[in-house]
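Aim 2, interim progress: modelling of the S-adenosyl-L-homocysteine-bound target.
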Amino acid sequence: MKIDVVTLFPAWFDWFRGQRHVANALAGGSELLTINPRDHTPLTGGQVDDAPFGGGAGMVLRVDVMDATLRGHYRTDPVSLRSMRRVIALSPSGRLLDDALVGELAAEPALTFLCGRYEGFDERIVEHYASDVVSVGRYVLAGGELAAMVCIDAVLRKIPGALGHAASAIEESYSSALEGLPEYPHYTRPAEFRGWSVPDVLLSGNHEEIRRWRLEQARARGS
Ligand code: SAH
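Predicted structure of the complex, ligand included:
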C-alpha cells in the first residue's frame, strides 16, 4: 500500500509514522509519503492560498497551487491522476468514513489524501482532481491532517501484519464477520473486582456457547 498525503504540515506525520501498527505496516513494505504544496507552489513567498471570491472570512487553497503540487510530484497532468489511484479530498461534508469505505480503500494499491486547511479547498480541486470526498464526522477540524490519520490508521489496520494479532482485525466492530454490528464486550483478569464479576459463560471454556453469547451481545448493542 502506497499512501501519499498532500499537507502543509508534514511534521504532523512524523509522530504518526512511529506508532506501532503504522511502523509495522511501513516495515512490511507499505509507504507513507508527505507532499508539501509549499515546496511546489509557483507563487512567490511560498503562497498557497488566497481570499475567497465573493468575500468572507478565511483563506482558500488555490487550484493552481494544487495543480503544480500534484504535477510536480507525480509528473503527470493531475486530472488523470484519479484514474490511476484514489485521490481523496478530506472535507467535513464528504462521504462518512465507515468500515465499508475503509475496506474499499484498504484494497487499493495506492491512495493520495488531500488535506485542506483554513477555509478548505477551491472547489475546482475537488471537482477535477479528487476521486472521493471523505469526512471523518459531522464536525469541523482545523485541518485535514487528523482526518487523514484517522483514515490511514483504519486502512493500515486492515493490512495483514500491521497488527500483532491478525485475527483482531477480522472480527471487529462493523466488520462483516460480525454482521456489521458493533463488537461484543471484552473482559480480562481479575475475574472479580470490587464485586464486579465477569459473565460466567466467558469462564466456561465452552467455545460454542461463548460464540453464541458474543453474537447476542453484539446484536443487542446494534439494536
Ligand atoms: N470551511 C469548511 C471547513 C474547513 S476546515 C467547511 O465549513 O466545510 C479545514 C480543512 O480541514 C478542510 O478543508 C478539510 O480538509 C479538513 N477537515 C475539517 N473537518 C473535517 C472532517 N470532519 N472530515 C474530514 N476533513 C475535515
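The first strand starts at residue 2 and ends at 6. Helices lie at 12-17, 20-27, 63-74, 99-106, 123-129, 144-157, 200-203, 207-222.
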